[in-house]
Amino acid sequence: GRPDALRQDIGEVLIEQDSVWELRVQLCTDLEAMPVEDSSVVWDEKASPYVAVARLTVPAQLGWQHGISEQQEQAVSYSPWHGLAAHQPIGGVNRARKPTYEMSTKFRGEHNGCPIHEPRALSDIPTGGMTID
Prior knowledge:
Structural class: alpha+beta
Number of domains: 2
Helix content: 25-40%
Number of strands: 2
Number of helices: 3
Radius of gyration: 19 Å
Shape: globular
Largest sheet: 2 strands, antiparallel
């Protein structure tokens, strides 16, 4: 087997071509039919079709790198709560996730012997000397 197969395969694609991701959301248009607090309810796509809200285009580049990527993985923490307050996750499931993210970050910081940073800007990400634009 290839324990890092997904990382290796994605890395090959990232080197060869630009990558594009489109972020889509489904807007809650009827609180009774689309309860935010009940994640077991599937929202009707006809009543609320997915809407594209962002497109992320990443130019072809070298992806994961020994040394640099490990440093970033150990020193940086990301969570859905790092963004604008207006964009923070809602609903009971997400309220339960928040302390899990916080405890995981604390555990990593204590056991890796490396302070964890929550980046607010691209310049906050450790690069190991690599340039990030």
